[in-house]
Amino acid sequence: MQFTLQNKTRFSRLLLIAAFILSSSLQAQDKKAKALLDQVSAKVKSYSSIIIDFKYSLSNAKENINQDSKGNVVLKGNQYVLNFMGVTKLYDGKKTYTIVPEDEEITISKLDENDNTAVTPSKMLTFFNSGYKYTLDATTTIKGRKIQYVKLVPMSSKDQRKEILLGIDTQTKNIYNLIEIGKKGTKTTLTVNSFKTNQPLSKNQFTFVKSKYPNYYINSLD
Q1: Using one digit for the tens of pLDDT, what is the confidence trace for 68-94?
Q2: Labelling 112: which of 64, 122, 217, 222 has CA 20 to 30 A away?
Q3: Tell me: the pLDDT tens digits for 169-211?
Q4: pLDDT at 129
Q5: Phi, psi at residue 188, to the nearest 5°?
């Protein structure tokens, strides 16, 4: 059949209509993804304190790497105490104390508040607010909980992560897990095993007490 000028015009119109529909669909999806992420951020900010027990998995099929670790973190505002892989990291709002029992060493440093690349546990719950393109991804049910995934793609070409999948409990609007897929095939998964909020904390929860570590070498970077 001859592809006449009239057919070409109709075909072009169909392409334009299809492109418009696809664009509208993606925009609607992005809006839904942003609305869900905004709900997560608002929920995190509403808590006076957060206590999380988590599992961390690292895998890379090409490198034959498969590691699992467990940890926990206590959060209040920007203060935190993180226990992970035998190391305790405490941030009192001014300084970070990295405590390594195996080496009996403590490193004290200040957090550069102007450094937007600095990653802290508190930022891990709201990191997605800038620097990413996002769309709704798959929905799955895990142990009776409906988990909606949001796919985040870093805008920076220097970022070594190909994409991030953020799993959100649709009922509680809390983060269930976070899956990072690297450009070189490395996959890391952080799964929240326990998420407690508004728990009473000791007034010294985020205070570094030097007397607890009498034989430790203290390395002050400031």
Answers
A1: 999 999 999 889 999 999 999 999 989
A2: 217
A3: 999 999 999 998 999 889 989 899 999 999 999 989 999 999 9
A4: 73
A5: -120, 140
In 3D space, the residue among 164, 209, 200, 203 whose CA is nearest the CA of residue 182 turns out to be 164
Q: Are 32 and 113 in contact (CB under 8 A)?
A: no
Contact between 156 and 131 (Cβ < 8 Å): yes
Q: How many helices (H) and strands (E) does the chain have?
A: 2, 12
* Residue 2 identity: Q
- Flag the least confident range among 20-24, 56-60, 164-168: 20-24
CA-closest candidate to residue 128, choices 161, 145, 150? 150
Q: What share of the chain is helix, strand, coil (3-state, %, to 5)?
A: 25, 45, 30
Task: Of 59, 89, 60, 93, give the one whose Cα is nearest residue 78.
Answer: 93
Per-residue CA distances from 43 to 38, 47, 54, 134, 140 (Å):
9, 7, 19, 19, 21
Token pair 């869900």 is at which residue?
36
Q: What is the largest CA-CA distance in the chain?
A: 90
Which of 211, 210, 218 is CA-nearest to residue 103? 218
Yes or no: say if 69 and 84 are a contact pair by the CB < 8 Å rule.
yes
Q: Provide DSSP, 52-110.
A: EEEEEEEEETTTTEEEEEEEEEEEETTEEEEEETTEEEEE-SSEEEEEETTTTEEEEEE
